[in-house]
From TrEMBL, chains A, B:
Listed GO CC annotations: nucleus
Keyword Cell membrane: no
Domain T-box span(s) in chain numbering: 4-207
Protein name: T-box transcription factor 1
Organism from which the protein derives: Canis lupus familiaris
Presence of keyword Lipid metabolism: no
Primary localization class, coarse: nucleus
GO terms (BP aspect): anatomical structure morphogenesis; positive regulation of DNA-templated transcription
UniProt KW keywords: Developmental protein, DNA-binding, Nucleus, Transcription, Transcription regulation
Polar residues compositional bias, start-end: 233-241
Residues of the whole record sequence present: 157 to 397 of 764
Compartments where located: Nucleus
GO MF entries: DNA-binding transcription factor activity; RNA polymerase II cis-regulatory region sequence-specific DNA binding
Amino acid sequence: SVQLEMKALWDEFNQLGTEMIVTKAGRRMFPTFQVKLFGMDPMADYMLLMDFVPVDDKRYRYAFHSSSWLVAGKADPATPGRVHYHPDSPAKGAQWMKQIVSFDKLKLTNNLLDDNGHIILNSMHRYQPRFHVVYVDPRKDSEKYAEENFKTFVFEETRFTAVTAYQNHRAGPASYQVDLSSSNCQCGLKITQLKIASNPFAKGFRDCDPEDWPRNHRPGALPLMSAFARSRNPVTSPTQP
Amino acid sequence: SVQLEMKALWDEFNQLGTEMIVTKAGRRMFPTFQVKLFGMDPMADYMLLMDFVPVDDKRYRYAFHSSSWLVAGKADPATPGRVHYHPDSPAKGAQWMKQIVSFDKLKLTNNLLDDNGHIILNSMHRYQPRFHVVYVDPRKDSEKYAEENFKTFVFEETRFTAVTAYQNHRAGPASYQVDLSSSNCQCGLKITQLKIASNPFAKGFRDCDPEDWPRNHRPGALPLMSAFARSRNPVTSPTQP
DNA sequence: TTCTTGTCACCTAGGTGTTAATAT
DNA sequence: ATATTAACACCTAGGTGACAAGAA
């Protein structure tokens, strides 16, 4: 069995509508896809890999005025279907289970001609990450058993929209939200704020007191409270008089 | 068989008398011990590891006035004998052979109570790195064959003196060398200069034109020429009038 | 308009020799 | 005297979102 790490963080992003940047050179995911594994044969070899499947056959665009995603037509032609093998593959079950498995080398690109082995996605399309565990069958005729030698795990909270620049980014010129309930965005917190608050590499964009959140950083409590607090009074806030 | 990478660089250091810094927290080696492997069974599992054995039973000290190492007595009590497993171990022969194997995670310490798994050495003692390849025998009674299931490789040019601060560092107050031929140091270039010239992380201490050495950086020619050139006129130079 | 690209300041994370202070 | 330690400026290497400019 597999347990998704940082599920609480994934849930927060998912509530806002997760966006993942894609670039020509390749961009890591944040949150990073990380799992804990259980119940493997400690002595057997396994390959761990990920791929990404379209959630639907649609292309999207972001409506700033309503702060929501709209269908913008049928999906663009499918990108080359690639998989990302965890670089430690193959390894023994014992090795995989003894620590969190992190896919932090995985990068997303929108370059159809990418030759760095990155995952190729269409911008403005929705994707579902999938995680696969493949048992390396020592038998000579292992191809015959290919069907029973792998297992796939899907965590719906890791779905995201691929973008070249954050869309759920700032309010439109109207600076208020009319229909909050039908929006993917259920609060005033924007994707970029949550990324800045939770990704250590974006610390340069934090505007809160740096001495503030070590105190709030308790087990079970995500270090996002200050970001939430600040999100109460932006120009987009529906509670603004 | 095994081929030492960067042999030319190791040779240069060895001519000067290689020194490796040891610290409480652990310090990497430079040059890094790196090898290419040949003739393994691509499908078999191997463990790769290193250890360090004393070259002799002596303690040394560095005589600044003669710029040479002197015996300072019998060796201190032996340090806990540790080994460093390459972190990719175990892995298939094919995986080991397809690229250079680099022991850049290996760290040296003088802390006898180290609990980071680093290699513990006595400062001011000489050591010989050793490289071991262990075949992971799939047989049940593999312990019986332990003797024939490993192979050890020693490259004498990788010998070094463990130090807490560089010794072959600068000339003493006399600022000349009396007996160059009996010295380990066969030219005016000092260990620190060679380290600074060849270790990218020490680039901050280079005083040569930064635009200088990309031009000199051709295959087979080490990027040390400017360091050599500058070493012709220091205060220690025997050709000084 | 809408989307994409490249550059940038600002981070994380960690490897250098230097230097001054401190042991021993 | 000699050897060790800790703080430090300066690097490598690379991951952030912001922003301005460009493309469709």
